Amino acid sequence: MEYTIASIFLLIGTGVLAGIINTLAGGGSNLTLPALMVMGMPADIANATNRVGVLLQGLVGVRGFHKAGKVDASDFVPVMIPTLTGGIIGAYIASYAPEYVLKPLLLTAMLSMTIIMIIKPSVISPPAGTTPFKVKQRPSAWIALFITGIYGGFVQAGVGFLLITALAGTLRYDLVRTNALKMVCTIGFTSVALVVFIWNDQVLWVPGLILACGTMAGSFVAVKFAINADPKHLKWFLLVMTCCGCIAALFSE
Fold first, then answer.
1. What is the Cα–Cα distance from 153 to 24, expressed in whole angstroms?
2. Which of 57, 99, 143, 189 could form an SS bridge with 219, CB 3.0 to 4.6 Å?
3. What is the pTM for the complete model shown?
4. What are the domain boundaries of the chain?
5. What are 60-83's pLDDT values in tens digits?
């Protein structure tokens, strides 16, 4: 694969936007996956390569939230068990699915998740002062996190909104701590998925690391104002960009 100045700027610029969107809410991979496929990557390779930027962006974001005192570690293990279990299953499905099946599924998932973000409430905000539940108190949370892990292991796009629904909606975390814990979960199942993809030699490191430069920068900037950010302002922009990116990817070779 040849890299031009234009393609490098495309990856970095898209990565910055994705890093901001992922940190504030979710759905940044709706931009990065089509960008990688437009460069000529098969869907499975783009799906695997995208995880490099997601993982490094997550590390930057969690560090920023931790410095602000917004990372709640009390429920790490109970939350991570179902998400990691699901992530392993989802990654294996994605890794071995044939390309002619994977690409339509990726594009359909991206469009479906974006439309859901627009027409249904994707963020459930509990009242201030609400005490979060533990996973053992809400079996529905375990199921939601397991399904989210499968989806996240299979395709990254839109998984942030599923995590927000599971963490804020069922466990009643406030949105700031939800975003922080969401990124911890993302690091978990992304790490598992990336190991599977590396094992199957599906990661292209050069574009992955170029993309990661953008996602890390975007996450660093977004953490600065994540506490007061309103994700709904990103949704219409995200829908338009996803539609354009998916159309471009459909007609790319």
1. 21
2. 57
3. 0.77
4. 9-250
5. 999 998 888 877 677 778 888 998
